[in-house]
Amino acid sequence: MLWSLFWVNLLGTIYGYEWYWKQLVYTAQEISPWLLPFVPDSPTASLFFTFVLIYLLIESKRNDDQSNKPAGIVRGFVEAFAVITSFKYGIWAVSMIMASAYQGDSLVWQDWMLSISHLGMAAEALLYFAFYRYRWSSVVLAAAWAFLNDYMDYTAGVFPWLPEVLMDDLPAVETFTISLSVVSAVVAMVMWLIRELRAFSPRKSV
Question: Which segments cross the bilayer (predicted)?
Fold first, then answer.
């Protein structure tokens, strides 16, 4: 299962960056190359989840049990970032596709493919919560990036290109995006709290 998810996420990440290629080129040439890190939202999320899967694959090969130990700074940030952004942009992308369809845009097969793949992103972020080892401080750092990304998206204009029918709803899209950042950060924090409570709960004697 881990290997299957690894290849799905890796190939999806490559496809995602290719999908954003025109916007990356436009941003570099017409706005500022310094804003490039804020452009490819979904593929960056799946890239970080790919790193999480690498950590889990390496851990599965070890004989010593490290699963209850908190992660270091780098792994903790990678995990928290993957959880927050995968859940956030998984829900965001499907919402934008369905919103555009509601306003009259026709759905093509790529829209259905993207909807399924992005729902998978959100689901897998939750599916492996028992294996994450990030600390609450990692959630704070990852959430800070998410809010910074939102700020840059809607002040510098590097948000993911939307269907034409949604451009007149940009303020609502911005509000929805920021709200998803809040919800995703809360989800990541709740998962951390659940793991902490389980770790410190007294075992029942037999």
Answer: 42-58, 78-100, 112-132, 139-163, 175-194
